[in-house]
Amino acid sequence: MNNRQPYVKACMDEIDRYRGGYFNERPWLRQAFGSVPREHFVPDRVWWPDRDADGLYPVLDRTADPERWLQAVYSPSAALITQIADGAVKPEDGPTDCGDFTSSISCAAVVVNMLHHLDPQSGETILEVGTGTGYNTALLAHRVGADRVVTVEIDPTTAEQAAANLHGLDRPAPTVVTGDGERGYPVRAPYDRLISTACVREIPAAWMEQVRAGGIIVTPIATPFGTDALAQLTADGTGHATGRLVTAVDFMFVRSQRAFRPWRELGWPRLPDFQVTAGPNGQEIRQH
Q1: Structural domain span for residue 152
Q2: Contact between residue 140 and residue 128 where contact means Cβ atoms under 8 Å apart
Q3: pLDDT digits (tens, 9 = 90+) for 75-100
Q4: Are 252 and 199 contacting, i.e. CB atoms less than 8 angstroms apart?
Q5: pTM
Q6: In what order do the strands lie in the sheet with 45-47?
Q7: Main-chain phi, psi angles of 129, to 5 degrees
Q8: Catalytic pick from 75, 104, 106, 196?
Q9: Are residues 57 and 147 in the same domain?
Q10: Is residue 191 in some structural domain?
């Protein structure tokens, strides 16, 4: 394998430029990103998330073109697709026109963004929902210690490979659980922080029940505005949580929440409920 360091540095430099301050405000995150080899968690064959000129999603093959593969691994703004149609389409099948992406290794910039907002502290306990390849899990373990991280993955094959990836680092590995992440993992609750790498339409009750009072929940949540948003919530210890939407993101849904539901059922105001006031000094948009 080619020297990874130039790719790591270029990726971190670009994240520094357009995610200003995320590494500087979280020195542990810079250290973890440089220490945990992202390429260790990427399969030898993955799909690039954009169509080629032929209309197909191309396969990046580590064996056939290691330079292009490694460059893609450290492309800060590209997620690499590891599963399509819940595994019905295989990377060895080659390029595909199927855009039913169901698992990926999130782009590096989004990983950094989410961990910045989660801001785990040394020694805290973390529940991760959606293990995927295990890369985000390894970054969490680097921060708080492997014995304080539990990660839940619904797909058995994905969970098995993630566990192998984590053990293959030759360092203590977190607990990988095969199960429905919407139910959390009550055996190890309460947690100081919870992060989901899959999008929800509605925050699962189990998450709020299993995070201690004052603990933080970070999850993508669907919005009616054509993009998902990253929610950062504080649990109150009684099964409730309150917070804000901090940035736009784009994530795959947890399996049981893929189907559309009316926005009003999910607590969203209608678009007519927003009032726009504009003038020479700017504009204001608020709910009325």
Answers
A1: 109-266
A2: yes
A3: 999 999 999 999 999 999 999 999 99
A4: yes
A5: 0.94
A6: 59-61, 45-47, 80-84, 101-105
A7: -110, 120
A8: 106
A9: no
A10: yes
